[in-house]
Every structure is written in structure tokens, then in C-alpha cells.
Amino acid sequence: MNKLEPQAEACRAYLVLNNPAGPDITDLKLDLILFNQDQVIERRIAVGLSPLPAGKTTVKLFDIQGQDCARVGSVLINEVMACNSTEGAVPDCTKRIAPSSRVGAKLFK
User: Fold this and answer.
1) Cis peptide before 51, with omega less than 30 degrees from 0?
2) What is the pLDDT of residues 9-54, one digit of tens each?
3) H-helix or E-strand containing 30?
4) 81: closest CA among 108, 51, 47?
5) How many CB atoms neighbour CB 89 within 10 A?
6) Other CB atoms closer than 10 Å to residue 90's CB: what's the count?
7) Closest to 30 (Cα-Cα) out of 89, 94, 91
8) Domain spanning 3-88 has what CATH number?
């Protein structure tokens, strides 16, 4: 997670994603749980983050409607809902994810 940016009625999250070894990811969807500063669940969202070409770093952003960025204490990657290449499901996709954060909110799995 690289940035959380307040919007009029949302919090915009920026994720920097790197797929160094491939294959090209054609479908990646994550189930995310947002916690506040007291580690109480604020909300659950699903985000699509594809495509992720092999050997490329990509920035993906999404708006979390009705969310105050200042209330986000941490974000849990709860589940990988989809992780596919052109050849089908990518094995061990969850193990390939190495979360980190450059903002005050922690990103973890």
C-alpha cells in the first residue's frame, strides 16, 4: 500500500503491485478487511487488481466509498478470491503476495 488519499466521499487507496516471475495474471481479486485504529473491523471489500503482466510493476487504485482514510488502522488481505492466468488458476497465489505499506496503516495477510 503506497498511499491513502481522502476524496469527497471516499478514501482512495493506491497499491503498487509487482509480478516479477510471472505468469501474466489476468484475474486477481482480493477480499480485504479494513480495521480502525482500535483494530475493530470497519468494513469488508472485494477489489479487482488485474491485469498484472509478468516482469512489470503496476499501480492500481480504488475508492472505498464512505470511508475516512484517517480511520484506517490496518488492512488484512483476508482471502485471494481469484488468481488466474491465461492457462487457469495460479497455484500458491496467496504465498506469492508479500504485503508492505508506506502509510500509517499496516497491510498484512
Assistant:
1) yes
2) 999 999 999 999 889 999 999 999 999 999 999 999 999 999 999 9
3) strand 27-35
4) 47
5) 10
6) 19
7) 94
8) 2.60.40
The grid coordinates listed for 2 are 503506497
Give the CA distances from residue 56 to residues 15, 34, 48, 86, in Å, rounded to whole numbers and listed in that order.
14, 27, 17, 17
Distance (Å, rounded) from C-alpha 27 to C-alpha 25? Answer: 6
Query: The C-alpha cell of 70 is what?
Result: 484517517
Q: In this predicted structure, what is the pLDDT of residue 5?
A: 98
Q: What is the pLDDT of residues 71-109, one digit of tens each?
A: 999 999 999 999 999 999 999 999 999 999 999 999 999
Mapped onto helix, strand or coil, the DSSP state of residue 71 is helix
**Measuring CA to CA, which residue among 78, 81, 68 is closest to residue 33?**
78
